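Notebook entry, structure prediction.
Reason for the run: the old model in the group folder had no record of what sequence produced it. Starting over properly, with the input documented here first.
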Amino acid sequence: MISPTARTLLLSAFVATGTLATGCGKPSSSTGTQNAGSADSSATPGVFAANYALSSFAEAIGGDMITVQSPASDGASATSFRPDPEQIIAIQDCKLILLNGADFSSWVNKASLPGSRTVRTAAAFRDQWLESNHHHDHDHDHQHGPDGDGVDHHHAHWAAYTWLDPSLAKEQAQIVGNGLARILPGKGRMIAERSTALNAEFAPLIEQAKRISETTLPAVIAAEPNYEYLARACALDLHDADWHWNEPQPHDGMESLKQLIEATGATIILVPETPTPERAKVLADLGVEPRVVPLLADRPEGADGTFIDSLKKILDTLEGLGSR
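New structure, fully documented this time:
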């Protein structure tokens, strides 16, 4: 157990140097110094969100009633986030800790988080999780168990990017709203109204995904196998290359990518961000055209809208494949 003195020293170092450096929560007046974990009831409750989708939902519903901290908005990447002990202390101090579950956030297995304040937003639809064929050691954690939390050592690797399915993202947003209502008991009506408004924004996205699923689209290749939920929602004929698409040449996955292109006849490859000029030339030489489809664990570079806006752009990109 960390002593109060050691805890104070760790927090002081964290405030000076770390990501999430402002702590989890802020005082309501300029004279306060306590964070969200303190007993000061005047502090704005701090909320930790493990990725861009969850932080976007929390901000849309909580607004200025909360302070949202997330690696996706603090200059780090949610997919590679590895909090050090000081950062974990700051996360523990948050009034609400929003995790994804479904094998996202590998650091969770090594952190002791307060169960009463921790919400795994994908746990409610565990029966809709997909198993992933992706077995590399990336950050979307290979947690095991019913909630992806290390409880039951089931050795499937779950596909992590649940929020790319608009229907599942809507459920996660609802769960975020429920969590916020619990830590802001006096703001229940406002939170309910904002949750309802956010839920309504998902309706056209869900309908668009359904429309895409009923359209005959050409086969496409995914540069990395993280689009499982998007592919299911839109009934894509998607083939995973598991190719380190943006790394310098040469790469040992090139031959398998060539074989996949020949086998599927695909001329489109989905990539999570704009390829480097060198990679773009490689793809052009292979006869495939990249389409940027961000994974939305982090805010897309240059994006000036909301998560909903970004997901709409993704669906527009996919729907456009039908007009080729």
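Summary: Residues 1-19, 27-40, 136-155 have pLDDT under 50 and may be disordered.
The old model has been moved to the deprecated folder.
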